[in-house]
Amino acid sequence: MADARALPGAAPAAAHRAPLLLTLLLAAANFMQVLDLTIANVSLPAITGDLGAATSQGAWVITSYAVANAITVPLTGWLSDRYGQARLFATATALFTFASFLCGMSWTLPMLITARVLQGSMAGFMVPLSQALLLGNYPPEKRGMALAIWGATTTVAPIVGPLLGGWITDNAHWSWIFFINIPIGTIAAFGTWQLLKDRETPIRRRPLDRVGLALIVIWVGCLQVMLDKGNELDWFNSDFIVVLAVIVVVSFSLFLVWELTDQHPIVDLELFRHRNFGMSALALSLAYGLFLGSMVIQSLWLQTQMGYTAQWAGYAMAPVGIFAIILAPLVGRSLQRTDPRRFATVAFIVFAICFFWRAQFTTGTDFLVIAFPQLLQGVAVAMFFAPLVSINVGGIAPERMASATGTQNFLRTMCGSFGTSLAIALWTRRESLHRAQLAEHINVYAPQSTSFSARLEATGLPPDQVHAVLDRILSGQANMLATNDVFWLCGCLLIILIPVIWLARPPFGRPSIIAAD
Question: pTM of the prediction?
Answer without folding.
Answer: 0.78
